[in-house]
Amino acid sequence: MTESRLRTFVTLADTGSVREAARRLYVTESAVSSAVTALARELEVPLVRREGRGLRLTPSGTVYAAYARQVLGLLEQGRAAARGAAEPGRGTLRLAAVTTAADQVLPELLASFRDRWPEVELALEVGPRRQVWSSLEAHEADLVLAGRPPAELAATVLARRPNDLVVVGAPALAASFTLDATPWVMREPGSGTGATAQAYLAERDVAPPRLVLGSNGAVIAGAAAGLGAALVSRDAVGAHLADGRLVVIDAPGTPLHRPWHAVAGADPTPTTLLFVGHLLEAPGWAAAGQDAEWARSHRPG
């Protein structure tokens, strides 16, 4: 049950294809098949079964894949912690962020952090909230920037920053806005802002026309083009508000206060705390836990 076999099995689980797993891992298809067969033999249960031209995990394989991801994530986290223990400024930091945070909050932070600590090995994963929290749970990310973490997640909130969600629209649409009839543009329910917008309308028992778009940028562009109102982070539309392409609509119950959270696992690595210390020097961020206070007071250099 080697790390290589676990990684091969997880890649096969993600792709559903021996050929694609081999391509991603730069190995032969026979090497992928052999690794998964060896794991199944050791566990004494089948892990995959043929389905059409691809493969599908068996119930045992689905359960085992979740554990395998956590084992691999812990190994990566352990390597990062070991490399950063003596010199946090030369360690590894695996960040994960929801799209709005990645677009609007992280760029300046990452640029200034890179200038200050050029030898830190940075990796950034961007995705919907379900994906980034799953990455943290599986130890595939050291730090997540997103909204409030799920209550069932074993995690440590290290810092917070205010974030207001406002309803915006093109000026002409805003002038005739009504909550129950004006069309809305929004993300899909799997995204944080999409789910919040759906819940906002449901709580007010209204069902206006809705146009679901695939990215925050598309939602903002759609709102600016007059396709509908949108519930978005004020951080994401600052330029549009400044030049008049969008205006804030005085919708009931808004703005919604949804702070950004910087969240790590139960035992943040030294390099993670180095980044949090840097983050706490940025405008608006405040410490939210003992580890964050430690990061701020022990920041190297």
Automatic annotation (TrEMBL):
<keyword id="KW-0238">DNA-binding</keyword>
<feature type="domain" description="HTH lysR-type">
    <location>
        <begin position="1"/>
        <end position="58"/>
    </location>
</feature>
<dbReference type="InterPro" id="IPR000847">
    <property type="entry name" value="LysR_HTH_N"/>
</dbReference>
<dbReference type="InterPro" id="IPR005119">
    <property type="entry name" value="LysR_subst-bd"/>
</dbReference>
<protein>
    <submittedName>
        <fullName>HTH-type transcriptional activator CmpR</fullName>
    </submittedName>
</protein>
<dbReference type="InterPro" id="IPR036390">
    <property type="entry name" value="WH_DNA-bd_sf"/>
</dbReference>
<dbReference type="GO" id="GO:0003700">
    <property type="term" value="F:DNA-binding transcription factor activity"/>
</dbReference>
<dbReference type="Pfam" id="PF00126">
    <property type="entry name" value="HTH_1"/>
</dbReference>
<keyword id="KW-0805">Transcription regulation</keyword>
<keyword id="KW-0804">Transcription</keyword>
<comment type="similarity">
    <text>Belongs to the LysR transcriptional regulatory family.</text>
</comment>
<dbReference type="InterPro" id="IPR036388">
    <property type="entry name" value="WH-like_DNA-bd_sf"/>
</dbReference>
<dbReference type="GO" id="GO:0000976">
    <property type="term" value="F:transcription cis-regulatory region binding"/>
</dbReference>
<dbReference type="Pfam" id="PF03466">
    <property type="entry name" value="LysR_substrate"/>
</dbReference>
